[in-house]
Write a structure and sequence with these properties.
single chain; alpha+beta; Nucleotidyltransferase, domain 5; 3 domains; three-stranded antiparallel beta sheet; two-stranded antiparallel sheet; 42% helix; Transposase Tc1-like domain-containing protein; Homeodomain-like_sf; Transposase_Tc1-like; RNaseH_sf; DNA binding
């Protein structure tokens, strides 16, 4: 095929020019493109420190790479970079992920809700109004942690967090009332919400 320049090969194959130049230099100096044995960089993290990393993560799966570097240095006198630890954890199939939020709903609560639904299955829902309150957190939790199953990872959170609160009611026709507030709800305030947002709207 004849001799071709690096740029010509780059145009024909779309391989990065830097890669082609490196391989051509390797061919001129070694006479071959084969990888020479014995020049692999050995991993600095041995079996003992590898087990220690797993223990650190099991104790606190939100530990950072910088904290892992410090722990290995203090406890095992091993000095490595954060990138070295990151690559090693990747080989161990760990990923840094953000867990899915899930409500704290115990099996007992689930069973009680299903039982209530069965008991009221044939009720006249046209005369029923459902009300509920919910809290919305303005700043979501973005703390990532290490996991080998990131798609199945969940973090249990409480339902009511002190942020922005919403009260609303619905019936078979749709929305009945809506109220937004930030104060703490007590019995007096709850009655006020019902009087201003439920009773009048439910009669329409």
């Amino acid at each position: 095929m004849g001799i071709r320049s690096a740029r010509k090969i780059h145009r024909d194959t779309k391989i990065p020019l830097s890669t082609i130049s490196y391989q051509l230099k390797k061919l001129r100096t070694q006479g071959s493109l084969q990888h020479q044995a014995g020049n692999d960089q050995r991993c600095k993290i041995g079996a003992k420190c590898s087990r220690a990393l797993g223990q650190f993560i099991r104790r606190n799966n939100e530990v950072t790479l910088y904290e892992l570097v410090e722990k290995l240095h203090n406890q095992y006198k091993l000095t490595v970079s954060t990138s070295t630890i990151s690559r090693h954890l990747h080989r161990l199939q760990y990923e840094k992920c953000l867990p899915l939020n899930t409500s704290i709903l115990t099996p007992e609560y689930k069973e009680r809700r299903v039982e209530w639904t069965k008991q009221h299955l044939n009720d006249n829902w046209k005369s029923i109004v459902f009300t509920d309150e919910c809290s919305f957190q303005l700043f979501r939790n973005t703390i990532r942690h290490w996991s080998k199953n990131p798609k199945e990872d969940k973090k249990r959170i409480p339902k009511n967090r002190q942020k922005v609160h919403v009260w609303s009611s619905i019936n078979s026709h749709g929305k009945v009332g809506f109220h937004l507030f930030q104060s703490i709800m007590d019995s007096v305030y709850y009655i006020e919400i019902l009087e201003n947002n439920l009773i009048h709207n439910a009669k329409r």
